[in-house]
């Protein structure tokens, strides 16, 4: 749980949850643009407001699949070696 907080906290604060990216410096806008949390927030906001952002939903699904594909085998390998 501690490791996940080390990853999730910077991703959350480096996203568009709290601040509009248009008010950020250019280098931070680039970081926010590739942040998976930003895509998730944009997709949820679009769905809640009835403005379905299909590209954001697809990006969220791609990010989720990529994270599972990378972290899943690593987690299972670590689990097998600890038991």
Task: Walk me through what this model shows.
With 83 residues, this protein is an all-alpha fold. The chain has one domain (2-82). Helices cover 76% and strands 0% of the residues. It contains 4 helices and no strands. Helix 3 (36-48) packs across helix 4 (54-82). It is globular. It comes from Geodermatophilus amargosae. It is found in: Membrane. InterPro entries: ABC2_TM. Residues 4-47 form the ABC-2 type transporter transmembrane domain. It holds the Pfam family ABC2_membrane.
Question: Brief description of this entry?
Answer:
The chain is mainly α and about 80 residues long. Helices cover about 75% and strands about 0% of the residues.
List strands and helices in order, with pairings.
Layout: H1 2-13, H2 26-34, H3 36-48, H4 54-82
Helix pairs in contact: 3-4
Protein name: ABC-2 type transporter
Domain ABC-2 type transporter transmembrane: 4-47
GO molecular function: ABC-type transporter activity
Key features?
single chain, 83 residues, mainly alpha, 76% helix, globular
Helix proportion range:
over 70%
The ordered H/E elements are HHHH
The overall pLDDT average reads 88
Largest sheet: none
**Segments where pLDDT lies below 50 for 5+ residues?**
none
Multimerization state: single chain
The class by helix and strand makeup works out as mainly alpha
The gyration radius over C-alpha positions equals 15 Å
Q: How many H/I helical runs?
A: 4
Characterize the overall form.
globular
Strand content: under 5%
Number-wise, the strands total: 0
Number of domains: 1
Euclidean distance between termini CA atoms: 19 Å
Domain ABC-2 type transporter transmembrane: 4-47
Pfam families: ABC2_membrane
InterPro entries: ABC2_TM
Transmembrane segments: 57-76
């Amino acid at each position: 749980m501690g490791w996940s907080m080390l990853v999730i906290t910077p991703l959350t604060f480096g996203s568009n949850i709290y601040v509009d990216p248009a008010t950020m410096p250019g280098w931070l806008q680039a970081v926010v643009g590739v942040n998976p949390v930003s895509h998730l927030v944009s997709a949820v906001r679009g769905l809640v407001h009835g403005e379905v952002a299909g590209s954001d939903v697809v990006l969220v699904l791609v990010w989720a699949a990529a994270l599972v594909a990378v972290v899943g085998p690593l987690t299972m390998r670590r689990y097998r070696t600890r038991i």
